[in-house]
Amino acid sequence: MSxxxxxxxxxxxxxxxxxxxxxxxxxxxxxxxxxxxxxxxVVDRLKAGAQYTGLxxxxxxxxxxxxxxxxxxxxxxxxxxxREVMTRELIVVRPEMSVKDAARVIFRTGHQFLxxxxxDDxxxxxxxxxxxxxxxxxxxxxxxxxxxxxxxxRTHDIDIDVSEREVTVSELLPTQRSVYADELEGRKYELExxxxxxxxxxxxxxxxxxxxxxxxxxAAKRAGIDRMHAHVLAVPRDEVAELGLREMARRGGLxxxxxxxxxxxxxxxxxxxxxxxxxxxE
Length: 282
Fold this sequence. Notes:
Residues 26-84, 86-143 form the CBS domain. This is ParB/RepB/Spo0J family partition protein. By secondary structure, the chain is α/β, with parallel strands linked by helices. It has 2 domains: 14-132, CBS-domain (Roll); 158-265, Conserved hypothetical protein from pyrococcus furiosus pfu- 392566-001, ParB domain. It has 7 helices and 11 strands. It has helices at 14-18, 39-47, 99-109, 129-156, 181-192, 214-222, 244-251, and strands at residues 54-58, 64-69, 113-117, 123-128, 161-168, 172-173, 178-180, 199-204, 207-212, 227-234, 261-263. A 5-stranded mixed beta sheet has the order 5-10-8-9-6, sandwiched between helices. The protein has a two-stranded antiparallel sheet with strand order 1-2. Strands 3-4 form a two-stranded antiparallel sheet. The radius of gyration is 24 Å and the shape is elongated.
């Protein structure tokens, strides 16, 4: 199968989003295997980095017959066909199912992905937990951008233009004093797997202030990534002589991402370790 993930408008309202179908987010560029293929071929393809730790099994007309993954190949030796080891009972979804309902199925069953089939069981694509995360990003990011824009417009009595573009991470001016080390690891995973939410920044003359996404930006800096996608709110210096966020950054001694402190989560003031001896435990 070949093709690309369908693109969606990033300005969807929550109500519109609830009506979006799986077809809008499913992956269609899926590697498959036939039932008469040798398991040795599957092993080679898995070693080469096949998607989803396995391969959907389809016939010549793309009917979904099963799935063969690494777990199906444990202790399998010799010349054996895929049809002899593949998993035949699969949870599948239809393309018209809502993203919201498909995400519920994924999270409740613990599956990493769901095959998407039509009424005749033709394999159309795969909807994964990563696709569910992407769909959530496209739902939450616009609302955060809009809230930030409304706050700035109300505070400074100006109209603010919003655009999308890549920004240079090393040139960002932070407005948050610290981040947590454990969250940086999570953001690193998101960056590596294309799941990172866009940054929200303010274009303030010759400066670019980071409003939302400090963990993402620090994780990108650590990974050597210097360009990230962002929603950019333009605040003209000639209309706003003193931007509150800029003043807050200045007072905090924040001039670059190097000034942001990285805190160990377990040392957070609201987190403490219990002392068994304090209660007479033996």
